[in-house]
Amino acid sequence: MLKRRDALRILGLSAVLGSGSLGLAGCGSSGDGANGPLRVALVNHVWTSAIRERIAEFEDLTGRRVLVSTMTSDQLSSTYNVKLNASAPDLDVMMYRPLQEQLLFARNGWLTEFNDLVADDSEYDWADVQDGPKDRVTIDGRIFGVPIITERPTLYYRRDLVDAPPTTLEEMYETARRLHSPDTGLHGFTGRGQRAGAVSMFSSYLYSHGADFIVDGRSGVGSPEALAAYEYYGRLLREAGPIGATNMTLEQITPIFAQGKAVFAIDADAVYQNFIDPATSTVGDRTGFAAFPAGPAGSRPFNIASWGLTINAFSERRDIAWEFIRWASGPEMTLRLQNEGVPSARTSAWADEASLTAFPPDLAESMAAGIETGVGADRPDVVQVGRARDIVGRPIVASILGDDVAASARDASEEFDEFLVRDARQRQL
């Protein structure tokens, strides 16, 4: 946590060292200089809502104005690509997806390295950050950000409609199909179906069928196990899901479940409040949570650091940007946010029994199960993640539509193999 003595130290450092203290290359003055307002870009997320309520605390401690921009994840990615390609200094702190943007951004020289920042900071306590999330912000020993949110898929289900949550994927399908009644406005299941956007949630079905996106450097999406996962997920949404499932992302499925129009949904546990908030949900008091159901290979959900904070390499305010990150993701603030139901990447927060009571008991159990058996990625681990998701997401759509999913998976696998050859050449930082 940033204390007043730290704030005074940073104000002094900025006056003496200016923007050069973190090795900034010259890149113009459109960022308003080292003493200009700190510009922070965040995604629409429960973590963002919680930290925005506390921004005034940081401003009071440092005397520095903070300008926050909040966008959807797609808007955020577009903004980063435009500004970073132009070496623009008018972004300082960036909320980003380590699994989505980091390899590309680091390879392009767009991110500040954090090794020296975290190495000797005992109060920040880098060792307290969980190993998996730390690995995801590190490339060849070089740290490019700090993880702030962990998440896993959880099964949201209507406790008033099913006696107990299904423990297997096949059981979930059978129950969803039996209760599916679109004529009365009730769907058995709702989940992401939009091509590239569905890939992250589909990954848990893939892993739980014993498959993976990449196996020994080659495409894994053409394997019999992967085909079984594609077929299952498509059948689930085609036979028990709402019309238009191939256009649906989290933004569409949340209100479907929250308004009582679905028996089951599977999505990230970090956004559970969106499903049960009394202000928007009519079934929050009837919603239960359970671990990801087991497939042929068991329950193998993703368990990832979904969002992190990093610093634009072209920022003119990298000293104060680090102090913002230090304040927002340090042990004290992390515990405060987890006490409000925001799942963190710090061991100390999860070890605090009081923080666990911020979550519904069955959700906490679901989280614990996901941490125990989870896989540390929810998409292909490549440089051009967006293109990879587009390729491996194609059979998802084919399966939902009832098309020839075997042919689609075969074509996708061949294209993905070619993609991986090019990607291997791009991975060198």
UniProtKB/TrEMBL annotation:
Pfam families: SBP_bac_1 (PF01547). It comes from the Bacteria. PROSITE patterns: PROKAR_LIPOPROTEIN (PS51257). This is Carbohydrate ABC transporter substrate-binding protein, CUT1 family.
